[in-house]
Amino acid sequence: MKGFTVLDKDRPLKMYENRAGIFKLLINNEDLELFESNIYPGKSIICQPYESINSTNIIFLLEGKLFHTNERKFVNTGDILFFKDLDVTHHLSVVKQTRLLMVRNSKHFIEQASTTDRIYEMIHQIQEKDQYTEDHSNNTGNLAVQIATMMKLSEKKIQNILLAGKIHDVGKLNIPIEIINKPGKLTVEEFEIVKKHSQYGYDIVMKEIGKNEIAKIVLDHHERLDGSGYPNNLQGDEISIEARIMAVADSYDAMISSRPYKEPISVKDAIEDLRRNVGTWYDKDVVASLVEIINFTKDVNL
Question: What is the rounded average pLDDT for all residues in the chain?
Answer without folding.
Answer: 91
